[in-house]
Amino acid sequence: MTPESQIAVRLGLAAGLFVLLALWEWCAPRREAGRGGRWSGNLGLLAVDLIAVRLVAPTAAVGAALLAAQHGWGLLPLLHVPYWAAVLASIVALDLVIYTQHVVFHHVPLLWRVHRVHHADTALDVTTGLRFHPVEILLSLAIKVAAVLALGAPALAVIVFEVLLNATAMLNHSNVALPQRLEPVARWLVVTPQMHEVHHSAERRETDSNFGFNLPWWDRLFGTYRARPAADEVVIGLPDFREASERTLLRLMTQPFRRGAMSVQAAEDPE
């Protein structure tokens, strides 16, 4: 598969899932989530992200995997791990890297300023899973490239991981509800919308929990799991960026460079 074709496949799968989740939200929303102004800002930010990645490094992670394979770089080739095991191990390891990155972005003030663009959304739906500042996207891409080179991850593992990460990010931010009997079981296998909703609470203690995007195990393993919010009704978003004017693309792009109280609190003990 050529780099261009794998990009086309990934975008096609993401677009198809986006449409399915948007229809599900429209037919059976879990909670009220007004789209007024939010979708244009969130999707506008996605367009900027796609342009930025296309201009800077369109196939960076997969290209790093091909480069590592060509030169025999990385831990997995050094240990002579069988190909199938290397694929599985790489997917799990890359997910742990993203979990760790997410925790760090919450606790380093300068990185939180960039990441808070995602948390400032005042409602959750499928577009929230696509709402990231381009600086965060490019930083995340650089971290993934470093991880792929260190692991010697196969290109197939990188492609599968990217598809899974995009899909689960849209799913766990979507305004849908899994059946009550299924959800407690499902959250042992994947981060569910109900589980991730806690992470978008306006309460600081809850914001700093449930960091997983794809696999839910890391939160349980490292003590960042919170089963449910303290209140029956979760207030979504950040207190400093609730005005309707904050939904525009220009305000989203400039938000990291404007001061907000939670940008300072990110590195402070909530006590």
- The domain tally reads 1
Q: What's the story with the biggest beta sheet?
A: none
Mean pLDDT across the residues is: 91
Structural class: mainly alpha
| Percent in helix | 55-70%
Secondary-structure element sequence?
A: HHHHHHHHHHHHHH
Please report the total strand number as a whole number: 0
Terminal residue distance: 52 Å
Fraction of residues in β-strands = under 5%
Unreliable stretches: 263-271
Describe the global form: globular
Compute the CA-based radius of gyration: 18 Å
Helix segment count? 14
TL;DR of this structure?
The protein has 271 residues and is mainly α.
Please specify the SSE layout and strand pairing.
Layout: H1 3-27, H2 38-56, H3 60-71, H4 75-78, H5 83-107, H6 109-119, H7 134-151, H8 155-173, H9 183-186, H10 193-197, H11 204-207, H12 217-222, H13 249-254, H14 261-265
